[in-house]
Design goal:
alpha/beta; Aminopeptidase; Alpha-Beta Plaits; 4-stranded antiparallel beta sheet; 31% helix; 25% strand; disordered N terminus
Length: 374
């Protein structure tokens, strides 16, 4: 991609569309994000970010504009597998990741450049492996970065909507091995035990479980590899706020006659209120484009959950793109919605310039007058 031809605050629609198209033209399924990270590191450096790629492959860009709050904008580099030919057609840009979630990440990059009235520190991050059970990129960020003063997660909400929260996730793996035997032998076979594990999980969650309601759990049989002798089943449960993961795993283990049940990943649900400062800032951005934004909760899970486990800060999720196209064979983003998303984010960033800071140096200065520090 060409070096940026624009100055601070003057990102053009042509440049923004080119940035996203360049991202889409680089395949980046989970575990293969290196080329995408290198492309973005170069593009962000050209735009004025101080940029580096960390030890796990996350690309991190920083803009310093004053002694104000630190705002982190975090999206993900990886996509699910499966190519979608990159093309522009009837005002739409097609490609794997157009909505989930290269479109939101590109919008964040452009908005950070354009938010010239924000007087603080902007940290824009593209993380790896969000589409995997362990969310290694976000886990590394929360382990190695100081807590920011506020956080925006980049996922497709639709340009005129704001996401308040997501269900949690419990990823399980059941493995079992049985002696070889004739198919007509009435003893349970490994394949049958794997199916029984799935049936037991569904029974434990109850008849009202499902993915359509935020306050109820919903289960998915992610995959099964089985024959009569060995079997592995990967199970995932999307969990509502307050759900007891430990109790479910304990009870499921008690109901399984043989085999091993492993917890691959567990992250709690998280939801913020309508009065959250980040929510209010994003709502302001949408209203300036003359719409009344909807405030949503999602039955999926995002890196918002992972970071909220350790960072008690204002946060929300936002990004242009229709989430019903996540992982679809015709995944695409409407370019006018993408541009509106950049405008909403730019306004929201500038609205957060007066957010109170919670940096470590402030804590030291607060303690010093009281005589706690000498």
């Amino acid at each position: 991609m060409k070096q940026a031809l624009t100055a601070w605050g003057n990102i053009t629609e042509t440049y923004a569309a080119g940035l996203l198209r360049g991202m889409l033209e680089i395949p980046s399924p989970s575990y293969q994000e290196r080329d995408q990270a290198a492309f973005l590191a170069a593009a962000m450096t050209d735009l004025g970010f101080r940029t580096h790629i960390d030890d796990v492959g996350n690309v991190i860009g920083v803009i310093e504009r004053g002694d104000g709050p630190t705002l982190m904008l975090l999206g993900h580099l990886d996509t699910v597998p499966g190519p979608v030919p990159v093309r522009s057609e009837a005002g739409r840009l097609y490609g794997r990741g157009a909505v989930d979630a290269k479109g939101p990440l590109a919008a964040m990059i452009c908005a950070a450049v354009g938010a010239v009235n924000f007087r603080g520190r902007l940290v824009v991050i593209g993380v790896v492996e969000e589409e995997t059970p362990r969310s290694r990129g976000a886990m590394a960020i929360r382990a190695t970065h100081d807590r920011p003063d506020a956080l925006i997660i980049g996922e497709p909400s639709g340009w005129s909507n704001v996401v308040l929260g997501y269900k949690g996730k419990l990823d399980l793996r059941y493995t079992v091995a049985c002696p070889a035997t004739h198919p007509s032998n009435p003893v349970p076979k490994a394949s049958e035990l794997a199916v029984s594990c799935w049936d037991t999980l569904v029974d434990l969650l109850g008849p009202d479980s499902g993915h359509g309601v935020f306050d109820r759990p919903g289960a998915t049989l992610v995959g099964i590899n089985a024959d009569q002798v060995t079997a592995t089943a990967d199970l995932s449960v999307r969990t509502p706020p307050g759900f007891d993961d430990t109790a479910l795993v304990r009870t499921l283990r008690e109901r399984l006659p043989v085999g091993d049940l492993e917890v691959l990943n567990s992250v709690a649900a998280h939801r913020v209120g309508r009065a959250d400062p980040v929510v209010r800032a994003l709502v302001t951005g949408a209203r300036r484009l003359h719409v009344k934004p909807r405030l949503l909760v999602k039955t999926g899970t995002s890196d918002m959950n992972t970071l909220a486990e350790v960072w008690d800060i204002p946060m929300a999720t936002y990004g242009p793109g229709d989430s019903s196209l996540d992982h679809a064979d015709d995944e695409h983003i409407v370019l006018s919605d993408y541009f509106r998303g950049i405008d909403v984010l730019t306004t929201a960033i500038e609205e957060l310039t007066d957010l109170p800071r919670h940096r470590a140096d402030q804590v030291i200065e607060m303690l010093r007058p009281a005589g706690v520090l000498r």
